[in-house]
Write a structure and sequence with these properties.
This protein is α+β, with helices and mostly antiparallel strands. The chain is built from 3 helices and 8 strands.
Length: 150
């Protein structure tokens, strides 16, 4: 089986200084390698192809066959790394905390320890009000972008 750490090392060699960050790397027992990568502006197909070629060039198919897929994480996937929080600052997200409670609002003030969520709610008999809720990353079960169609 191909070593996940070897793949991670190869990718880190390639992406240093490029603005690309790794979201996940998975290697199955059948040597199916899946790499999810992104940038602060959104990774391009060409950037994914470059990562793919670099990995493929540095692995020996004759010694050990493998299947390789490199792509973006997709809009419907939960966040896995802090860079995804920074990338989506200002966007509407759905947060599920460690107790299973869900919150929806605008992602704000991301730091290395957590973030704020600006939510709107209607108090009884009143107009819409804005409330900011602070979260530490250790309180979060999942965070996803909320897709809005205008």
């Amino acid at each position: 089986m191909i070593d996940r750490n070897k793949i991670e090392k190869l990718i880190n060699e390639f992406i240093t200084g490029t603005g690309i960050f790794i979201v996940t790397i998975k290697v199955s027992t059948a040597n199916r390698i899946t790499v999810l990568a992104d940038t602060m502006k959104g990774i391009t197909i060409d950037e994914c192809a470059e990562i793919h070629r670099y990995i493929e060039k540095h692995l020996d198919r004759n010694a050990e066959d493998f299947e390789l897929q490199v792509s973006s994480p997709g809009l419907d996937m939960p966040f896995r790394v802090i860079e995804q929080y920074y990338r989506n600052e200002g966007n509407k997200v759905e947060v599920t905390d460690s107790e299973g409670e869900r919150f929806t609002g605008k992602l704000k003030n991301v730091t290395s320890g957590g973030f704020e969520l600006e939510t709107e709610y209607r108090a009884k008999g009143k107009s819409m009000e804005i409330k900011e809720i602070s979260f530490n990353f250790d309180q979060i079960k999942s965070t996803r972008v909320v897709l809005t169609i205008n």
